[in-house]
Amino acid sequence: MQQAPKTLREILNQPAVWERSLAELEQMDLSALTAGHSPLQVEWVFIGCGTSYYLAQAAAASFTVLLQQPTRALPASEILLQPQLSFPRGARRYFPVLISRSGHTSEVLKVAEYLKQEGVEFLAVTCDGRELAEMTPRVLRLPVDESSTVMTSSFTSMLLGLQYMAAWFAKDGAFLAALNALPEALEKLLKRYVPAVQAFAQRRFDDFVFLGQGPLFAIACETALKVMESSSSYAQYFHTLEFRHGPKSVASPATLIGGLLSESGYATEEPVLLEMKKLGAAIYAVTNSASPQLRETADLLIELDVPVPELARTVLFVVWGQLLGSYHGLSKGLDPDNPTNLTRVVTL
């Protein structure tokens, strides 16, 4: 029997990776990593490229919600090309958090060099470490051994790590406990929904659109990227309610519109997805608890049904886009382990 692509194996192994990452986080000295730069006293700026930029967006949202403090996310290139726009009060007035799975991403390393020249301390968040980990004594390194080209368990584990750090600063023990419940929750969800995602991924669409609000907007962006990377398909992302303002013109039977529906905004977000179904599009939804109408209408529905704080569920929304992209790529005869035109690390 032919072995599944390593990308799929790594996606499906995320419960074990999360459990290992959370155990290591409990042993880390987070106070030493961030000494003198508490997010309660200085604005943190999360920085990455590609998937790591979307991770930065989700992390910034998590810090803002949990700590009620302003944070931002920026692509590394923006700092290199527009430093005054990126750091309007001067780089020393912020605490940058540089995110790179490999620690070898060219733009991130160039930002690190710029910060060192400016005398700015920063935190590195990484899995492999490499050059980035050598440029700062402040390194949050997650124990993720990921060989696939596209980021899967590295994304979710680094997001868990940053959410863990935010909850630690907030002294929110209930949130930390909720994070520790996620590996078991995902294990159960994978057993329930993987066959449905695999079967649905055989369908052909000309256009994929993914919608989300708040912290889930970053996950909608990452879902679109995973579908593009793994299946060489055209995919877009929008804030859910913004999709009505022009973009809904693409809705048709050849379009899949996916909604990552929040609990707090469900009553407002669900009607957008149902409207797109009436316009002829296929619809896909991930939510914690769906209405009877959505259960009857959705072409693919993932109900998480995990009783933890809404923000703690964010990482559970990620996995289904990873699976959809990989299975859809396989249905087109592509190899998720060798996505078109891509390499594991972007170096310039």
Automatic annotation (TrEMBL):
The keyword Repeat applies. It holds the Pfam family SIS. Coiled coil: none annotated. The keyword Lipoprotein does not apply. Keywords: Aminotransferase, Repeat, Transferase. Gene3D superfamilies: Glucose-6-phosphate isomerase like protein, domain 1. Residues 29-184, 196-339 form the SIS domain. One of its GO terms (biological process) is carbohydrate derivative metabolic process. GO terms for molecular function: carbohydrate derivative binding; transaminase activity. It comes from the Bacteria. This is Glucosamine--fructose-6-phosphate aminotransferase (Isomerizing). It comes from Bryocella elongata.
